[in-house]
Amino acid sequence: MPSEVLVKGSGLKPRACSSSEQSARGCKAGTEFPLQAQGRAPPSGTAAPAHPEPLVDAHCHLDCFSQEKLDSLPPGIIPVTAGYSHKSNLKNAEIAKRLRIPFCLGIAPQTALSEGVEKLPEWVDFIKKHSPNAIGECGLDFHWSKNDADIEKERIVFAKMIGLAEEMGLPLVIHSRKSDPAVLDALEEFGWKLPFMMHFFSGNGADAERAVRMGGIISIIGMHSKGRKEAIQRVPLEKIVVETDAPYAFRNIDGIHEGIKYVAEVKEIPEETVAKATAENAIKFFNIKQ
What we know:
Blueprint: H1 19-23, E1 55-60, H2 67-70, E2 77-82, H3 86-99, E3 103-105, H4 109-115, H5 120-129, E4 134-139, H6 148-168, E5 172-175, H7 180-190, E6 196-198, H8 205-213, E7 216-221, H9 226-234, E8 240-243, H10 256-267, H11 271-285
Parallel strand pairs: 1-2, 2-3, 3-4, 4-5, 5-6, 6-7, 7-8
């Protein structure tokens, strides 16, 4: 596989995901990436600050980008594209191979609710064959689950993803909407020892500290909340990455600057320090070879 990532100029408006894709919502390991910036200035009118090294958007969904947008991704940012359903995994594996970027494959709890668990063996087999950088997104979502039967479906799929990640020796990317303590309990019950990332963290400071004690890292998005601020304050910078969850929370991967700015403001440190550290943390977590 070639060693260069091809990222280009600014993006256009994203194509909206289908209703079925929305209802299902949360590179091969060792792929090499250049550490130098991509050498193209942002388009006029873009206010994003310049950084000497590429940033890393630790979680986005490029399968929901139009082809035009994929062909004109903002420069200087390595996106980690994440799957959440079998259909999403199919698209993300293809996009990651074509763009030479890191990727995650997994089955999210919303997919367990909308599609059931009958085809889980087929979905797992696809993930095994495509060697992602991490397994996810996966986890528990107590916002969408309405009863014990729903929660049981989510738990079945989450347990399968944990076992798969352990089998493949890969980290987990966790979706934990309104379920941080339950997700961490599940990892402890399983005896999970590998790294994991709390995607779009929305818990509180205590949840964040517990996750870090267990070997996790916290993924911060540039959306202010009391719990997110607590997490930034209480978790060391070396355990923080930043993300956009584009095109859901931000339209494009250059929204990563908002996450960097937020962490820098709360910790009262330079944005450049946050940009460098969060990129290094993501590179280590996803095993992106320099």
